[in-house]
Amino acid sequence: MLHDQPILVIDDNVNLARGFATGLQRSGYRVNVAHTAEDGLKLADADHPAMIVVDFRMPFINGAGFLYRLRACPKYKNTPVLVVTGATVDDEMRTELADLHAVLRFKPLALVDLLAEVGALLGESTSSPLHAAG
Q: Of 118, 103, 109, whose CA–CA distance to 26 is shortest?
């Protein structure tokens, strides 16, 4: 199944971004990849993504900073965003990400889980998005 709108993957870990992109492409998604929040914002403006997968811990502008900039633009107010991190996230940050309408998942994130989350966020499955505990 080929999907019309692209998914934007933003992660400063080049290998992880490439792995996510390859898995999504093999499942029929068009994927754009950026390795900084700044480049991610530029790619979002150039090719309005159906959804965004963004790393939380990145240099200069982190995932929350990216989300604040993204949500400041009305056309991205409802774009689904999956934030992935290997870091510990406190309750304040969980609340902040929820207020920014982002779903939080933890690394390592298996391809099957990534695909399930993407499908759920795009309304392509009947299951609700997976939410990691912890």
A: 118
